[in-house]
Amino acid sequence: MKVTISWLKEYTQVVDSAADIADKLTMAGLEVDAVTPRYDYLNGVVVGRVEAVEKHPQADKLSCCKVNVGGEKLLSIVCGAPNVREGLVVPCATIGTVLPGEFTIKKSKLRGALSEGMLCSAAELQLDTSHAGIMELDDGLIPGTPLAEALMLDDDMLEIDLTPNRPDCLSVIGVAREVAAFGETSASLMLPVVTLSEPDPELQSIDDLVAIDIQDSDLCHRYTAGMLVDVKVGPSPFWLQDRLLSVGLTPINNIVDVTNFVMMEMGQPLHAFDYDNIAKGRIEVKRAGAPISFTTLDSKAHTLDPEMLMICDGERPIGIAGVMGGENSEIMPETTRVLVESAYFNPVSVRRTAKRSGINTDASHRFERGVDPEATLAALKRAITLMAEVSGGKILNGLIDAYPVKYEPVSVNIVPQALNRRLGTTLDPGTIGSLLASVGFEVADGHDGTMVVTVPPFRVDVSRPEDLSEEVARLWGYNRIETRFPDVPVQAKGVSPRIAMRYALQDIMVGMGFSEAVNYSFTSALSCDHLGLKDGDERRAVEDILNPISEELSVLRTSLIPGLLENMRRNNAQQIDTLRLFEIGKTFLATKKGRQPREIEMVSGLWSGAREPGAWYSRRTPCDFYDIKGVVEALLKAMGFGEAQYALANGDAYPYYKKGYGAVIRYEEGVVGSLGMINDTVLNAFGLKQDAFLFELDLERLLPFYAHNVMGTTDPLPKFPALARDLTLILDKEIEAGGVIADVLALKKQQPLIEDAFLFDLYEGKPLAEGKKSLSLRIVYRSWEKTLKEKKVKGIHAHISKTMMEKYGAELPS
Prior knowledge:
Elements: E1 2-4, H1 5-8, H2 18-27, E2 31-37, E3 45-55, E4 63-68, E5 75-79, E6 89-94, E7 98-99, E8 103-104, E9 108-110, E10 113-115, E11 117-119, H3 147-150, E12 156-161, H4 172-181, E13 211-214, E14 220-229, H5 238-246, H6 254-266, E15 270-274, E16 282-287, E17 292-295, E18 301-304, E19 309-312, E20 317-320, E21 324-325, E22 338-345, H7 347-357, H8 362-367, H9 376-391, E23 394-395, E24 400-402, E25 410-414, H10 416-423, H11 429-437, E26 442-445, E27 451-455, H12 465-476, H13 497-511, E28 515-516, E29 522-523, H14 526-531, E30 555-556, H15 561-573, E31 579-589, E32 598-608, H16 625-638, E33 645-648, E34 657-667, E35 670-678, H17 680-685, E36 693-698, H18 699-710, E37 723-732, H19 737-746, E38 754-763, E39 772-781, H20 790-808
Parallel strand pairs: 13-16, 28-31
Antiparallel strand pairs: 1-12, 2-12, 3-4, 3-6, 4-5, 6-11, 7-8, 9-10, 14-22, 14-23, 14-24, 15-22, 16-19, 17-18, 19-20, 20-21, 25-27, 26-27, 29-30, 31-32, 32-36, 33-34, 34-35, 35-36, 37-39, 38-39
């Protein structure tokens, strides 16, 4: 945001220097990047007196002048101005001066005559719009005096780097409000007074010529319009052009210049339409509804999305709401009737439109950050009043104010004690109220010592007590807040169960010989296809992210498995074929469109290659399914969890496991993960040529049980010996051994002497019948109170045998 000191002085008393203002603004949170003397370009332009004038020997319209610029030598300057004469005091640009437009003055010959400078018009120096002749100065000025000093041209331009949360300062009045507030004694803010004339019976009402229809009020909360007739479009007066030039804007014509002036003055973007190019006198504010091609004022064609908000007439679009008007309704030299728009558009809608269309304008910059919805009508009145003044037009009777979504004032309750505690200050309520009132907040007393603060509509960034604390801090002065060390409690808080579980997982996995992998949360959309996940699977339902780094990182991952398989591929390419990796990280499962994805923290491990590192004393045996299952069992046990159950995985739910080599992991009657051998289809998709075994555990489901476990106590070492008895059952091949073991352990509730049960032998084949297998279980019994006797264990063991035989239709070996 650029603003000049002279412009600020129109709205508040300015007594500080530009440097002091810049320093105070910066300390108040509005960082000033640069302070530039506005008339720096006049360096090299001095006061000159024409001592003699002769006609150019080879050009009737040129004169050869002798000009006194304060030195001993008179300069020879060729001039074509009709008003040049002897004794005239004029601005003289000396050799080396760079005038506006990057025009450098050099010694030259014009039609054979030497010229050592240039006598300047007011327009050439951007001091007026007149090109009629050279600028005539006061006769009493001394030749050689710098022109800026002679004319007392003292003005500075401030360039302010605003943060996105301060759109109220994207206007000169907004900056003036800040300048008025931080003085030693708060100065008043003097807003321009706009008074519309009484209705003229000879003029029509705007309602007779214009109809406004807001069809999508969720994107356009307010739309106001005014109209002028008998307008004469032409160059703006000097004061208006000068104001725009001072902040880096280029004057266009008196109508467009007023819209830009009011936008810079009040922060409200406006747009002017040629009324005679508006079909049926209608303005319809609505979504595009379909992809359309639209040509904007800069003569560029844009393809617009159906959701983009458009300003349309009775037949076609004539503007992109909040961004740029259309070429089909722009103000032309022959325009005589002007319709002026002042509106409030949804900031999110304007931001999306500007980003997707690639059109960034001063208007969209303000709309997408949020303008004052209550200033819409005031800005319109200011604009049409100035347009009538500079164009000779007449304002039609009445204004249109379509306001379907009313502004709801925001009130925030603050407690002075809490505010002081947050800032480290001791400000009384009166001081707090005065500081807030200085920048437009209304403060009233509430109940129980609270203060009720009504936020002004132009402060869209304030909605909670913390925001008001920031306001008080910056207005009071950050440098006035005493530096104090925070109170540090002696007793430190422990880490959360989630973090503790993560640390424990890392230690245990590393202890089992695994290395931790850290992959991006982004992955390729093809990773879901590689795993064979079917349509409808939530692990496949990912959404593209905006502005992806690359195609390989275009979606959020729904599983850790693709990342580990990709790590395996890269290691295999480096001839590392034995690999044990694990990763702890979040996966992202899509919910409804437009909603944040569901985040689930997972741990996944991969084992591929040899069971043990190659050595002279050991055989290089490849790892298998039971190795990865052993890792999971050891991990859960080391984490303090109870016994998990394992069941054959459903191929539809886990298509990446080889059939018959995948298992789901159940704990406390819920599925907490899976493990298995990756099938050949998936291996080929990832470019892998050796077997890979993986597991994955849902840490979100395990966390509640871990939090319980870490707060418990450990069991003491047993004092009495255990007894082990074997049980061999002949049963159907389809019956899972894990289910039999789980049923044996489930009998602990009835028989507390049961300590453990595990499979130690499996046999299939003759002399067993076809479709049968033999399972040999070892059941461990122990008492915590005494040494067990054979008779006691024998009865319990017989009961277990009978129960298992009845449930599974099993037989004992003959």
